[in-house]
């Protein structure tokens, strides 16, 4: 990757979130560097999506802080942050182009908004579907439109809440390749929530496990890109993380792959 990094730094300080008497997140401390791609894995209900909503400003923490580029985030919505969900959330009464233009609300020029929307649709391979209705698109195509909408404003931080979870296997691989390509080109910071450990290893620089509301694993993925699913080191990395997620591997110091401990860093960040 040769493009200049444009992503923002994300820091979570002692982040805590409760709903009534139920504590969902406890003392989350995490720093993500500009342009880094980080994946969060964990069982359902562990607090992954809650953490993403706190970063997005959709919910407020019970305690602790979210810092964007070293500045405390006190705005409900930050225009430099965009979010993708598991469903595309397209407006069915608006054509594809108009749905993408929603990501450019506030643009001074309608001409600029249209040109930019067409440009990002081209980047996701759907410029020729700009005037179609969402209902005629496949699930994968609708998610491409949602990705185009999220990237239209050139965000510095892209939050991904299982955006590929509902896609079939082949379409999911295609979307993973597209997402990685656009990330490498645009150099935004990315934070991905996923239940798919293989997907996390394919895309991320680091994979983090949340258990019982705490960060219990933080592993660096020291594999060349694009990641080869048939590679022995790739398979061993996926297996090691999956064993940790499933509770088969209790020690947080186990190495993944055949590299040294510095190549496959795995350390507990639990408070």
What does it look like?
The chain is an alpha/beta fold and 271 residues long. It has 2 domains: 10-80 and 156-267, Rossmann fold; 91-154, no CATH class. Helices cover 30% and strands 23% of the residues. The protein contains 7 helices and 11 strands. A 7-stranded mixed sheet has the order 6-7-8-3-9-10-11, with helices on both faces. A 4-stranded antiparallel sheet has the order 2-1-4-5, covered by helices on one side. Helix 6 packs across helix 7 (232-245). Residues 251-271 have low confidence and may be disordered.
% residues in beta strands = 15-25%
Low-confidence stretches: 251-271
What is the helix content?
Answer: 25-40%
- Tally the structural domains: 2
Number of helices: 7
**CATH class value of the largest domain:** Alpha Beta
User: Do you know the CATH architecture of the largest domain?
Assistant: 3-Layer(aba) Sandwich
Number of strands: 11
CATH-defined topology of the largest domain: Rossmann fold
Please identify which CATH superfamily of the largest domain we are dealing with: P-loop containing nucleotide triphosphate hydrolases
Q: What form results from the Cα inertia axes?
A: globular
Q: Which strand order spans the largest sheet, edge to edge or round the barrel?
A: 6-7-8-3-9-10-11
Spatial separation of the terminal alpha carbons: 34 Å
As a whole number of angstroms, the C-alpha radius of gyration is: 19 Å
Structural class: alpha/beta
Average predicted confidence as pLDDT: 88
Order of helices and strands: EEEHEEEHHHEHEHEEHE
Largest sheet: 7 strands, mixed
């Amino acid at each position: 990757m040769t493009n200049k990094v444009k992503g923002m730094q994300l820091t979570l300080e002692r982040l805590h979130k409760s709903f009534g008497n139920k504590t969902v997140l406890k003392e989350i401390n995490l720093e993500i560097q500009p342009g880094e791609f980080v994946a969060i894995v964990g069982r359902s209900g562990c607090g992954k999506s809650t953490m993403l909503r706190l970063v997005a400003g959709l919910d407020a923490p019970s305690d602790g802080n979210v810092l964007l580029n070293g500045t405390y985030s006190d705005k409900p919505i930050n225009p430099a942050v965009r979010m993708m969900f598991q469903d595309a959330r397209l407006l069915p009464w608006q054509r594809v182009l108009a749905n993408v233009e929603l990501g450019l609300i506030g643009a001074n020029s309608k001409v600029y908004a249209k040109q930019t929307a067409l440009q990002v649709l081209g980047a996701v391979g759907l410029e020729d579907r700009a005037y179609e209705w969402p209902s005629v698109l496949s699930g994968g195509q609708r998610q491409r439109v949602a990705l185009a909408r999220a990237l239209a404003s050139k965000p510095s931080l892209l939050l991904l809440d299982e955006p590929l979870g509902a896609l079939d296997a082949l379409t999911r691989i295609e979307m993973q390749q597209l997402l990685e390509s656009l990330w490498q080109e645009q150099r935004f910071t990315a934070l991905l929530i996923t239940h798919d450990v293989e997907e996390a290893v394919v895309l991320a620089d680091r994979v983090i496990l949340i258990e019982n509301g705490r960060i219990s694993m933080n592993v660096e993925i020291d594999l060349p890109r694009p990641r080869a699913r048939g590679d022995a080191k790739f398979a061993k990395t996926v297996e090691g993380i999956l064993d940790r997620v499933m509770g088969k591997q209790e020690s947080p110091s186990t190495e993944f792959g055949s590299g040294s401990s510095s190549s496959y860093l795995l350390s507990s960040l639990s408070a």
